[in-house]
# Entry
Amino acid sequence: MVGRGDGEDRAAAPGAALSLIRAGAIGAAGMSAAFSQGHVVVLALLLGLAAGRVSSGAAAAGAAAAVLLRWGSPSLGALAGNQSVLGAAGLTGTSAAAASAWLAAAALVLAATPVGHARPPQGRLARLGFVAPAVPFGLAAAAVVAGPGPGGALGLRVAAGVAAVVLAAAVATIRTTPGADRVAASLAVSCGIAAVLAAGTS
Amino acid sequence: MTEPGWADAVLVLALLAPLVGLSGLVGRLSVAIAGRLAQAGALVAAACWFALLVAGSAPEVWRFAPDELTLAACVGAALIAAGAAPAAGPAVAAGLGALTATLAVATDGRPSTAALACGLLATWGVAVAARTSTGWPAVVAGVGVVLTALALVDVGDAGTAELRPLALLATGSAAVGLVAGSRPRHTVSVLVVGVVVASLRFLPGLPDEGGADALALALAFAGTVAAACTLPDRWRAGLPWRLPTPVAALALWALAVAAAPVEGAAVVAVLLAAAAVLVAAVPAPGVLVAAVPGAVLLAEGLAAGRGGVLGPLAALAGATVVALATGVGGVAAGVEEATERDQAGPDAVPAVLLAIWLVAIPGSWAFAGPGDLSLYDRGAAVAIAASMASAVLFGAAARRSPTLGWLASLPARPLPPVRPERQPRRSARSRRRAARAKAPPAPPPAPPPAASGPGAGADDRDRPRHRRRPLRVSSR
# Structure
């Protein structure tokens, strides 16, 4: 049985395990998204690497393109600064712009993946590790839709971050079933494309 | 600042170093030794060109006066040749010598297009004459080289703004790029450096209203198709060709960006071309990350610009990224087996280090042009530091915890061995008595061997439990 922690399972499904490269990408993406440091396209690449899925990377790239189109700057710091002054991205601007922010956040939450396709393992620590790739997706979603930086509504960002991480972890747990995995991947890519279109028309 | 004498001496050494590989033609050397000599010459040349590039020197010896882009191109050509040398030997040494020497020739302070055209033709001729390139790759590369040479002669040293010679130049470069993508670590792969450098020099001069949009779209479409051709067999529906490396896709995209009306196009094109050359030098899937800086800046430029061609370009770029990521992911996940050429040897170390440098601090690659890469550099620094810290922390935690060890696919730290409980001292008689009591009963006599055929040593489970009666076949 896969996911019970015995040696045979490890040998049977090597691709399902979290490699150190993925672990590094998870940490880097989480740091970038939480503290709004770096480049939005680099964050999308890190998210794709953290998820280990092309569909998740495509959804993250769509969200990054939507941010680029709306704000005109690839800097995550500028994104947070703009939201500090103008308000949360999902609550300000034209309806198309706000919709673009929400769609980008939805794409990021739906793109969250667990470690492989196995069922969650036993033990609290192992379960937390199992949904670890979802954490940077939630933080990035919060930064996109409600991510004011210092000087703005930081409480809103923290609340949005917690909610988005919980949602992303739930999505990641649900995606352990093959049918739900396919549906979530399709929805994530669709939301990413829709976010780009909405940002382009705003 | 560097001393001119020092730089000139290094330039001479860089030009002459590939000729060491020609010693295989003179003496009666084995193929392996000739290949090693050619490889050593190429690596020495690469080191010399790199030293000149990093020192920021502008050496000038006779007609040889390379600029920064030429120095970088010569580093790339030498690295590709170092990878191809063990198999090609003197042929690749001759090709490298001809190409780098003609790349470095300048007239009136400008790189000489006529010399480069001669160098491209000579390199291709050497590859064909030495029979290191045969069949359709030789033909396609030859057509591409001839087209490029004709275009270079037409363009001239000063450049032109006409569409026809530049389109010819791009077409020839694309043909050579396709061959380089299909033949990694090959003598003809060295050619891709020359044609791409020639295109990068002159394609940005094409005005927007002069057909630049159409040329950029055509090249981008070709790059997307080339990227799709790198996919594994089961995902490459409808595309009969298989390109083992993404060199062609990256080179074609570099040409497309050079011709496109994208903000900072020259820098993006040089970064993508550098990635193509590094992938040609080390065709391992992981080296594709060298394309990240170029891709990031391309996304930035596409989002910042306004124009009718940018939308289709963005869609094609997205499709290319998905195709390349799927191909690399397929190799990494074991869907597709890595070929023998994907397994790089020690000679690939310089190219891998350059790829890491390019990914981490592309802003320090001054030859790429005056682009603003500071934001990318800061983001990459944060990402690399955070990823290393989290990888170390996660690895340490995974080794301590069995559950996280499963997640990390790492063996958990083994538990300390259990010490046997100390037994009370007993007399010799009582020990003998206990040993007799614990001794197992005498084993039954061993059965005779069942068979002496090939399965005689097989496991017991494979043997029949009872003897079967052989089938009798009637003679009627």
Notes: Chain B has 18 helices and two strands.
